Amino acid sequence: MSDGSTTLRGTPNPEAPNPQLPIVQRLRIRFAKRGRLRFTSHRDFGRAFERAVRRARVPIAFSSGYTPHPKISFAGAAPTGAASEAEFLEIGLTETRDPEAVRAALDDALPPGIDILEVVAAREGAGSLADRLEASEWVIELRDTPVEQAQVAVDAFLAAEQVDVERMTKRGMRTFDARAAVQSLSVGSSDGPGVAYAILTVVVRHQNPSVRPDDVLSGLRICGDLTLEQTPLATRSAQGPLDAGTGTVGDPLALDRDAP
Amino acid sequence: MSVESVFPRLEPLLPTVGKPIQYVGGELNATVKEWDDVTVRWALMYPDAYEVGLPNQGVQILYEVLNERDWLLAERTYAVQADMEAVMREHGIPQFTVDAHRPVRAFDVLGISFATELGYTNMLTALDLAGIPLHAADRTDDDPIVLAGGHSAFNPEPVADFLDAAVLGDGEEVALAISEVVREWKDEGRPGGRDELLLRLAASGGVYVPRFYDVDYHDDGRIASVRPNRDGVPWRVRKHTVMDLDQWPYPCKPLVPLAETVHERYSVEIFRGCTRGCRFCQAGMITRPVRERSLQTIGEMIDTGLKESGYQEVGLLSLSSADHTEIGDLAKQLGDRYEGTNTSLSLPSTRVDAFNITLANEFSRNGRRSGLTFAPEGGSERLRKVINKAVTEDDLIRTVTAAYSHGWRQVKLYFMCGLPTETDEDVLQIGVLAKKVIEAGREASGRRDIRCTVSIGGFVPKPQTPFQWAAQLDHETTDERLRKLRESVQSDKRFGRAIGFRYHDGRPGIVEGLLSRGDRRVGRVIEAVWRDGGRFDGWSEHFSFERWESKAAEVFADQPVDLDWYTTRERGHDEVLPWDHLDAGLDKEWLWEDWEDALDPDALEIEDCRWTPCYDCGVCPQMGTDIQIGPTGQKLLPLTVV
């Protein structure tokens, strides 16, 4: 999509109205959505982040044109209500900054619960960040389900070749397979005080339509007669490249971290 | 005794409601204090959805002013949406504040800011969810004082049964004064209970306590008298006026939400009050006199406000912003200061005046040049004279020509329909004017793609204005006039797509009219509508005229009054109006003379008393106030922008 002049990679178009400074540094950011702020929607977060960038006085680049937009690109946002330890975005700057200083300034400018965990400079020629986000690992707490009961549902789910689930999307009710995208699914037990309950760990490959934690839960309900009193808390614990051998989710910033 | 947060009970339910972020709080600059560290606790409510209520200046100002005191605590609460209301009822979760999720009933004062009467049903929802009895008479010492403020508080009679108290005018000083009274009463061990507290507030002369006034009626339905029923309660209750806005530079630390809201900008009031004398304008009548904020304070507020919020837009608020005596300097200096920072400045409420184009150009130096809005209000010259809005057709054409020739592509014009003495012909003039605007714009810009949007609101006569006696136009005639207007424009192919129309049908205005000029008998209608499911009356998707109409008919079945009696009936000189005992400072005789002048084609224009001699509206001598305007010759501080 062209919006006038600078893109995260391109050069300014001198013909565009409100010409802006070019991008000299791209920063990749990992952040967390925690606690009550996990109810922040992707859209809400986008605007809040723009304001945080201004409060933190990060020299963000803008697009040219009649309505200049800050150069921020989001990748693979967690659904509203899900917590996450592994959300990613990329910003373009007009001046070079120390990534750690930017991390601290942005974290300070955002409310507690939206926490900036890591900032690294993008390594040129190492490929796009979005392309590296191949899969996610989710941890889902089933606070009113015993481990054994969850295990039965999980076994049935894994044994199935296809598990069709329904979800309401903007384009109406959609039916799609929730099974194929699931790389792995296991059941653990809570170890805190009180009655032990099941905790699922699931690795899901990103595809279209995306299979989200609640789709996996719908699949478990269908396969294993799993009933849930409360909406379970789902937390994205990792997001990144999928290791084909081990089936685990890697670090998407590893290629940039040691950039010269 | 500490109060428990409802959040642990609420959190598991949030995934089941729409836009849960509106209920979690956690805004930047929000304040959460320890319950036991303070003596007096306020819950501040804006009775509309979070997305509308959060940006409200009044609530943000009081929130900050109150929380700055170490013995006070203020939290906020908003109207919950229908899905949330159902969830809360099902799970027994009470109305809560978004700051610390404390139950509203636990606070000492529930202060509700009514910018419009259409929030009344939402107040009832909140009271009911909070477990606070709807009727003030049924409340106990365990319930908060339910206190109304905002423009609608200048006639709170329709909600008198539900309120313990109301305050008129600027809230900063009186909120603190009320807090002092509450603190003293609590420190003394709450002598005399709730009744004694209300009596102390009423005796101050600045707080209206409806229960201490009796209303008697004539057989024909008109009010015979309104009189105090307790010793020490004044006959009239006075409005509050903050005189030095530089002493009250709020909001300093604006609340910045995560959720999307209707205004996402840092707003600073550059002055309060307006003395242009437009006869329909309640705000202009009840906020007198004009009190300007100095350039230096405005400059400091914007600097801090932007740093604290990260907003990209600044709104310079007032009732007619271009009238600030130093607006030219302000525009120029702000333009210089924020050059190249992608910060945009906006100036709502501008008059039809070519000078405003210069200002608008200055303001758009750093950002967008989208559309300009002007408000001629009346379609014909005759009607503009009736409302004392002295804008000539030449003024308007000159102004829009300047706008279009400076690269603005879209001009919005705001009008009203249903003004006193209005005929079909006056409304059709709106279309004629819009066509002339497009013609002038095409000539000035040399382009065909310019647009003019005509936005039309139905006129609702308001208390404390010269039109408080006027008959409101019935909604059938309003709709018919708007239909004729639309036809006259759309039938002309040369302008078809260049002129856009935005208007609502006339029916919501009738309900607003009932609630604006109603008396205590209207309270039963509000309650009946609410019990029947009425909520969010300001939202067209929730508003039901049929419900209001049928409930009014039921409630008034055995009364000499009805919906028409409150709305389309013209009042006479000697009629006691429901708000006569509430003193905005305006001399009732002056208002009446101004109403007569409106109807007299030979009467002279009332000029602005900022620049011409006083015309004796009564406010300054009655309230002990003065016009406070510059120029001060000050500069914005020479701050550098990174």
Question: What can be said about this structure in brief?
Answer:
The complex is a heterodimer of chains A (260) and B (642). By secondary structure, chain A is an alpha+beta fold. Helix content of chain A is 22%, strand content 29%.
Task: Please give the structural blueprint.
The complex is a heterodimer of chains A (260) and B (642).
Chain A: E1 25-33, H1 42-55, E2 72-75, E3 83-93, H2 99-109, E4 114-121, H3 129-132, E5 135-142, H4 147-159, E6 164-169, E7 172-177, E8 182-189, E9 198-205, H5 213-224, E10 233-240, H6 254-257
Parallel strand pairs in A: 3-10
Antiparallel strand pairs in A: 1-3, 1-4, 2-3, 5-9, 5-10, 6-7, 8-9
Chain B: H1 7-10, E1 40-46, H2 50-53, H3 57-67, E2 72-78, H4 82-91, E3 109-113, H5 120-130, E4 145-149, E5 165-166, H6 172-187, H7 193-203, E6 213-217, E7 223-228, E8 237-238, E9 266-269, E10 271-272, H8 282-286, E11 291-292, H9 295-309, E12 313-317, H10 327-337, E13 344-346, H11 355-363, E14 371-377, H12 381-386, H13 393-405, E15 410-417, H14 424-445, E16 451-458, H15 475-490, E17 499-503, H16 507-517, H17 523-531, H18 545-555, H19 563-567, E18 582-583, H20 588-599, H21 619-623
Parallel strand pairs in B: 1-2, 1-3, 3-4, 4-5, 8-18, 9-12, 12-13, 14-15, 15-16, 16-17
Antiparallel strand pairs in B: 6-7, 10-11
Helix pairs in contact in B: 5-17, 13-14, 14-15, 17-18
